[in-house]
Design goal:
Elements: H1 3-14, E1 18-22, E2 30-33, H2 34-50, E3 58-62, H3 67-78, E4 82-86, H4 92-102, E5 106-109, H5 112-121, E6 130-133, E7 145-147, H6 148-152, E8 168-173, E9 183-187, H7 188-201, E10 209-212, H8 219-230, E11 235-238, H9 245-252, E12 256-259, H10 261-276, H11 280-301, H12 308-328, E13 335-338, H13 345-353, E14 358-363, E15 370-373, E16 386-387, E17 392-395, E18 400-404, E19 411-412, H14 416-422, E20 429-437, E21 443-448, E22 453-454, E23 460-461, H15 463-470, E24 476-482, E25 489-495, H16 497-506, H17 514-518, H18 521-534, E26 544-549, H19 569-575, H20 577-582
Parallel strand pairs: 1-11, 3-4, 3-5, 5-6, 6-7, 10-11, 10-12, 12-13, 13-14, 25-26
Antiparallel strand pairs: 1-2, 8-9, 9-19, 14-15, 15-16, 17-18, 18-20, 20-21, 22-23, 24-25
Helix pairs in contact: 1-2, 2-3, 4-5, 7-8, 11-12, 11-13
C-alpha cells in the first residue's frame, strides 16, 4: 500500500464528491471533485515524465497552500519522484541550501515572488534543470521556466514508476531552530502506518470539511490536513492566507480544523478583550457562562453526566455567551486539533467550557509525525494523549522521550552521522523532548531537552511550563526565559500592546510612544505584578526575577520564529545579548 494506491482508491470511491476547494481573488469558493483531482494529477505526472523526471528524482515545492500543491505532490509521487516541500517564508539563501542539499532536479513555485528566490540561487544548484510556476506570468517565461498549465499539456512516455511502500515519498527539511536544517526521509510506509493509526482513533469521513491554513510543507498539516482527509473522502478547503482564517472559517464552516496553539490563544485573547470592553452586566453574564461551562467540562472529564439542572444552565449559557464563538468557527465544528507546540491547559479548558473540544497531539517530522494524541474517546487536558496504535514510547533515565515503530523516519538525507545520533542500535528514536507517562498512560511533555536552563546553582529549569503560564496574562503576548549559568531567571517579554494601551489610557499613563510607555514605572509594576501572581505555584528557583519589555514582537520575518511559530531561542539570545546582559549587572 502506498500514498498513490490510497489516492486512487479515494478517487474511485468518491469520484464526483468535492476533494478540494479554493477561493480565487475577489471570488467565492470553488470545488474540485475527486475525479477532477485525479485527472489533474495524471496530466501533471505525464508532464513531469516529458520533462525527464524519473523514479527517485527530487521535485521541490515552494508554495502556499493551494490546489496545485496537492496536484504537484501526488503527480510527483506517481512518477516515483520524491517531493521536497519548502515553507513559502524561506529566504532565497535558505531555498538555495535545500535545493543544493537535496539535489533537486525540478522545482515548482507558486508566484513571481517565489520565482525570484529560485532564480537568484539557481546558478548555485547544478542539479536544477527546470522551474515550474503556478501563477500566470506576463510575456515569455525566463529561460528554464515553464507554466504549470503548459506542463499539464505535455505528453510524456508511459513508464513503470510504481513506488513500493519502502520507497522514500518525501524529504522534509526541519525548520532548524539551531544549525542548518536536516532532510528527513519519510517513506510511503511511514505515512501509511501513521495515518491508519490516526484514523483508527479519530473518525474522518466524506461528510467532513477541513479548512487548511497551516503550511502543507509542515508534516503535521501534510498528514492531518492533506493525506488523512483526502483518503477519507473529506473536502479540504484552502484558506486564502493566515490573515483571512477567521473570515474563511465562516465561509467554509469546517467540521474539523488543525492549528498550532497560537490561533487558539489569539481567539481566546480577542474574546477576553471584547468582554473587557463590554458593559458590567455583559461581563457578569460572560463569567457566569464560563463558570457553568467549566462545571460541565469538569463533570465530563471525571466521566460523569452533568445534572439536569446543570445541563439546563449550560443550554442558557450556550445561547447567551458561546453562540457567537461557535458561529465564528462556522457553526459545524466537531473539534479542533492542536499540534506543533505546547497548548496551554487553561486554553483547552476554556474552549471546552465553551463547548469546543481541542484535541492535542504530539510528534516530530522524524516520526511522520504522530507519536501520541488525545482523541474523542480518550483525552486529558495538559497532556498530549496516549501513544497511537503500533507506536512504542518509553522514558529514558534522563527523562527524554524515546519512540520506536513503523512511524520512525528512514534517516536524514546524506547524513548518516546525524541519523546515528538520534536512532540507537535498538531502533529507538531519541526525540529530544523531556516528559513523563502518567498512571493512565497519557504522555506529558515538560520541555525540549536543549531548552532546559541550568542555573549557576545547578538547578534545572524547564522554561515551557513557566512561559505557558505567563502568556495567560492579558498583558503578555510573547515571552522567552533566559538564565543559563546565571543565578536566577530573567525574561524577554513582548507585551500585548492593545491591552496595555487600553490599561495605560485608563490609568493616565503616557501612550503616545510605545517604547516610552514600556519604561514607565506604572507599566513595569503591572507586568511585575502579573508575573508574581501567576507563578505562585512554582518553586523559588523558577521565579522570574527580572525582565525586559520589547517594543516589537518576535516574528518569522525577523527570523526569530520558525514557520510553526516556535521561538528560535539561539537567534533571540544573540540578537538581544545586550538587553540580557543588562538584566544581570552583577555578572558584568
Amino acid at each position: 500500500m502506498t500514498l498513490i494506491s490510497m489516492l486512487e482508491h479515494a478517487i474511485e470511491h468518491y469520484g464526483s464528491r468535492p476533494a478540494l476547494a479554493h477561493k480565487p481573488k475577489g471570488g467565492t469558493y470553488q470545488d474540485i471533485s475527486y475525479t477532477e483531482l485525479g485527472k489533474s494529477v495524471d496530466a501533471f505526472r505525464k508532464g513531469l515524465n516529458a520533462l525527464g523526471a524519473q523514479k527517485g528524482d527530487r521535485v521541490a515545492l515552494l508554495s502556499e497552500n493551494r490546489p496545485e500543491w496537492a496536484i504537484t505532490d501526488f503527480g510527483s509521487l506517481k512518477t516515483g519522484a520524491v517531493t521536497v516541500p519548502m515553507f513559502s517564508t524561506l529566504t532565497a539563501a535558505q531555498v538555495g541550501y535545500i535545493l543544493k542539499d537535496s539535489g533537486s532536479k525540478i522545482i515548482c513555485v507558486s508566484t513571481s515572488r517565489q520565482l525570484e528566490k529560485v532564480i537568484a540561487v539557481r546558478d548555485e544548484v547544478p542539479t536544477l534543470e527546470q522551474i515550474i510556476i503556478f501563477d500566470q506570468i506576463e510575456g515569455e517565461p525566463p529561460d528554464g521556466v515553464i507554466q504549470f498549465e503548459a506542463v499539464c499539456e505535455l505528453e510524456g512516455q508511459e513508464t513503470d514508476t510504481a513506488a513500493n511502500e519502502d520507497d522514500i515519498a518525501t524529504i522534509i527539511y526541519t525548520s532548524g531552530t539551531t544549525g542548518d536544517p536536516k532532510g528527513v526521509m519519510l517513506t510511503h510506509a511511514n505515512f501509511i502506518s501513521n495515518l491508519q493509526a490516526c484514523k483508527s482513533l479519530i473518525e474522518v469521513s466524506d461528510t467532513d470539511v477541513l479548512l487548511s491554513f497551516l503550511p502543507l510543507s509542515h508534516v503535521f498539516e501534510r498528514l492531518g490536513g492533506h493525506y488523512v482527509p483526502l483518503f477519507s473522502g473529506s473536502k479540504v478547503a484552502y484558506a486564502e492566507s493566515t490573515f483571512t482564517v477567521a473570515q474563511n472559517m465562516r465561509e467554509v464552516a469546517p467540521t474539523v480544523m488543525l492549528s498550532v496553539p497560537r490561533l487558539y490563544e489569539t481567539m481566546h485573547d480577542r474574546i477576553l478583550r471584547a468582554v473587557q470592553e463590554g458593559s458590567p452586566i455583559k461581563q457578569k453574564i460572560f463569567h457566569w457562562g464560563v463558570s457553568i461551562g467549566s462545571s460541565v467540562s469538569s463533570a465530563i472529564q471525571k466521566g460523569k453526566k452533568p445534572s439536569a439542572t446543570l445541563q439546563l444552565q449550560q443550554n442558557i449559557a450556550d445561547k447567551l455567551v458561546f453562540a457567537k464563538l461557535k458561529a465564528a468557527t462556522g457553526g459545524r465544528l466537531r473539534f479542533f486539533v492542536s499540534g506543533g507546540a505546547a497548548l496551554p491547559q487553561s486554553i483547552a479548558e476554556f474552549f471546552h467550557a465553551a463547548g469546543i473540544l481541542i484535541l492535542e497531539g504530539y510528534g516530530l517530522t522524524e516520526t511522520s509525525p504522530v507519536i501520541s494524541m488525545n482523541h474523542p474517546g480518550q483525552w486529558k487536558f495538559g497532556t498530549v494523549g496516549v501513544p497511537v496504535p503500533g507506536v512504542e514510547v518509553q522514558i529514558a533515565e534522563d527523562g527524554e522521550i524515546l519512540t520506536r515503530g513503523p512511524h520512525v523516519m528512514k534517516g536524514y538525507f546524506n547524513n548518516e552521522s546525524a541519523t546515528a545520533e538520534v536512532i540507537d542500535g535498538e531502533g529507538w528514536f531519541h526525540t529530544g523532548d523531556i516528559g513523563i507517562i502518567d498512571g493512565d498512560g497519557f504522555v506529558k511533555i515538560t520541555d525540549r531537552k536543549k531548552n532546559i536552563i541550568v542555573l549557576s546553582n545547578g538547578k534545572n529549569v524547564a522554561p515551557q511550563p513557566i512561559e505557558s503560564e505567563l502568556v495567560q496574562s492579558p498583558y503578555i503576548d510573547q515571552i522567552m526565559l533566559v538564565g543559563n549559568e546565571r543565578k536566577n531567571l530573567a525574561a524577554l517579554i513582548v507585551p500585548n500592546f492593545d491591552a496595555l494601551k487600553a490599561w495605560a489610557t485608563e490609568n493616565d499613563v503616557v501612550t503616545d510612544d510605545i517604547a516610552t510607555m514600556l519604561e514607565t514605572r506604572e507599566v513595569r509594576q503591572l507586568i511585575q505584578s502579573e508575573i508574581r501572581s501567576r507563578l505562585t505555584d512554582f518553586s523559588d528557583f523558577e521565579q522570574v526575577r527580572r525582565f525586559t519589555l520589547l517594543d516589537k514582537e518576535f516574528s518569522q520575518e525577523a527570523d526569530e520564529m520558525t514557520p510553526t511559530l516556535k521561538l528560535k531561542r539561539n537567534v533571540i539570545i544573540e540578537r538581544y545579548a545586550n538587553a540580557i546582559e543588562e538584566m544581570y549587572p552583577e555578572d558584568a
